[in-house]
Structures are given as C-alpha cells and as structure tokens.
Amino acid sequence: MLARAIVAFGLASGLATGGLLAQQPAHGPQGQPNLVVSDSTSFWIAPPDGWVFDAESGKREGLLAVFYRKGQSWRTAEPLMHASVITRKIGYNAVIPAAIRSDSANWAGTAKDFVFVVRDSVRTNSGVMAHLRSYRSVSSKQFDTVAYYQGDERTWMITLTARSLAAHDAAYADFMALVKSFAPGPDQKP
C-alpha cells in the first residue's frame, strides 16, 4: 500500500512539475531564444547571427554565458562576448555606479595607458536601460566595452572583449545587437 502511495505521489508530483515547466516560456518577450540564469533571477538574450551562445564553457571563470563566432571556440575567439553578474552576495555593491568604479579601478591598476570612455546609454528592445563604458589599453592589447544593466540587488554585465581595436570595432554592431536583445527573465526557484 505504501509503495502505491509513493508511486501515486510521484506521478502527481511529476504532473505538477511538468505543468509548471510547461508554463515556463520557451522564448523571451521579443523572441529571445536563450535564458541566462544566476541564482534566483534570469535574463533573456539573443546572440547576433553568426554567433554561438554557450552557457557552459565560461563557468569555471565565473561567466554566465560566452558568445563567439561560429567556427571558433570560446578560448581562442577574437573577439569574444560574455555575460556576468555582480551581487551583494559575492561581496560587491551591486549598483551600476559602484560596478563601474570597481571596473575602472581594476583597469587603472593593471594598465598604465588605460583609457576610460563613457558611451551613450541605450534602451534595450524590452525598455531596460544599458549603460555603456569602454576600457582600453594598447600596451595590454585589451579593448573592452561593457553594458551594465541594473537588476534587483545585482548588476548584469555583457562585455565585448578583443585583443585589437580593429577586432573590437568590427564586432561592435554585433555587440550592440546583443546588448539591445537583453530582457529581464522569470524568477527562478532555488
């Protein structure tokens, strides 16, 4: 009798779970095909044509997702884009001005020819503001542009990074397409 009760409970639980999973949208509000998850929150994103969405390869480095051109790998791609997050939980002030100050300080400490450029903020297709900053160092061969999005007690970041200014600039339109595809996702159950 107990075995039948357990089986019945398991079937009911499976049906309930299946029902909940079926309610999870398969795409974001503007048709974004990829959901990026961190802890209990998420966001939708759509990589540009010709780019791969990879939610596994960058995990060891703390990245939520990496994006690289088809035919390349995330380790050797030039340029590369990636998604990351800072939260109070991991010891950072999770508001955009603090994130920018932290990034600027990190860059200034590693590159003597560091250049910081404030770029125009843009509104994503879902209405969220993305605040853009560029960090560059010719001597370090590092050219990054970061889009910062304010989340609930977190700052989401999407970064375009390249080893040459030419590669960075050639991918900038694709980066902006990725930035504009950002949309808040559903809360996730822990």
- State the end-to-end distance: 33 Å
Along the chain, the helix and strand elements come as HEEEEEHEEEEEHE
Named CATH topology: Protein Transport Mog1p, Chain A
Tell the overall outline: globular
The stretches of 5 or more residues where confidence is low (pLDDT under 50) are 1-23
Give me the CATH architecture, please.
3-Layer(aba) Sandwich
How much helicity do the residues have? 25-40%
What percent of residues are in strands? 25-35%
The average pLDDT value, as a whole number, equals: 78
Number of domains: 1
Quaternary class: single chain
Number of DSSP-assigned strands = 11
| Class from helix and strand fractions | alpha+beta
Rg (CA only): 19 Å
Textual characterization of the structure:
With 190 residues, this protein is of the alpha+beta class. The chain has one domain: 3-Layer(aba) Sandwich (Protein Transport Mog1p, Chain A), CATH 3.40.1000.10. Helix content is 28%, strand content 33%. It contains 3 helices and 11 strands, in the order H-E-E-E-E-E-H-E-E-E-E-E-H-E. The chain has helices at residues 2-23, 96-110, 165-181, and strands at residues 34-38, 41-45, 51-54, 65-69, 80-87, 115-118, 122-123, 129-137, 142-151, 154-162, 183-184. The strands form 2 sheets. Strands 3, 4, 5, 6, 7, 8, 9 and 10 form an 8-stranded antiparallel sheet that branches. The chain has a 3-stranded antiparallel sheet with strand order 1-2-11. A hairpin with a 4-residue loop joins strand 8 and strand 9 (142-151). The longest helix has 22 residues, at 2-23. The chain is globular and about 45 Å long. The two termini are 33 Å apart. Mean pLDDT is 78; it is low at 1-23.
